[in-house]
Amino acid sequence: MARPRQFDETEAVTSATELFWRRGYHATSVRDLGDELKLTPSSLYRTFTDKHTLFLRALDHYRATESAEARQHLNAADRPVREALREWMLWLVGCPAGGKPGRGCFVVNTATELGTADEKVRRRTEAAFEVTRQDLRSALAGGRDRGELSADLDIDAAVELLFTTVLGLRVRERAGHDIERLTAAIDAAIRALGPAPAEPA
C-alpha cells in the first residue's frame, strides 16, 4: 500500500507561487523550492515531476486567484465605469492576490523574464492577458450601454490603450515608482476615454 503524502499539495503550490513570484523562474533553484516547501528533492520530484512543472502549476494558481479578485474590482454594475476602472487600476498597483509592494504581477514578471521562448508559459501568460482584455471590454461596453461613455467610443482601441497602460503600471510598480505618479498616469488614461456624454436638456 502506498504511503500517504505528509503534506498538503495545494499549500505546497501556494508556497511555490510565493517563491517564484518573489525571485523569478531562473533565480529559483530546486534546493530553494525544497527549503520553502520543506520537501526533500526526491519528494518534490515525485509529486511535481520537475521545477518547470511546478512553475506551471504556480502560474495557474496565481492566475486563478488574481483573476477572481480582479473581476470583482472591475465589475462596474453598481458604480460608474470610470470609477470602477480607476479603482481597479489603483488596486493593481497596490497588493493584489496577497502580494507585497514592489513585487509586481507574477504573470507580467513571467512574460518579461521568459518571453516567448517557453511555449507552455507563453500560452498561459497570453490567456491571462486575454482575460484582462475581455474584462475591460465588458466594463467599457457596459458603460457605453448605460450612457456613461460616448456612443461612438472605439471599444477595441480603448481596451488596448487601457491594457497597455495596465502592463506599464505593473512594471513601474515593481520598479518602485511613486504611487502619486502612477495615479497621475491612471487618471490620464481615464480621461482619454473622453468626456461623459451631456445630459439631455
Automatic annotation (TrEMBL):
The keyword Hydrolase does not apply. Keywords: DNA-binding, Transcription, Transcription regulation. Residues 6-66 form the HTH tetR-type domain. Transmembrane segments: none annotated. Residues 29-48 bind DNA. Pfam families: TetR_C_13, TetR_N. GO terms for molecular function: DNA binding. It comes from the Bacteria. The keyword Glycoprotein does not apply. InterPro entries: Homeodomain-like_sf (IPR009057), HTH_TetR (IPR001647), Tet_transcr_reg_TetR-rel_C_sf (IPR036271), TetR_C (IPR011075). PANTHER family: HTH-TYPE TRANSCRIPTIONAL REGULATOR YJDC, TRANSCRIPTIONAL REGULATORY PROTEIN. This is TetR family transcriptional regulator. It comes from Streptomyces spongiicola.
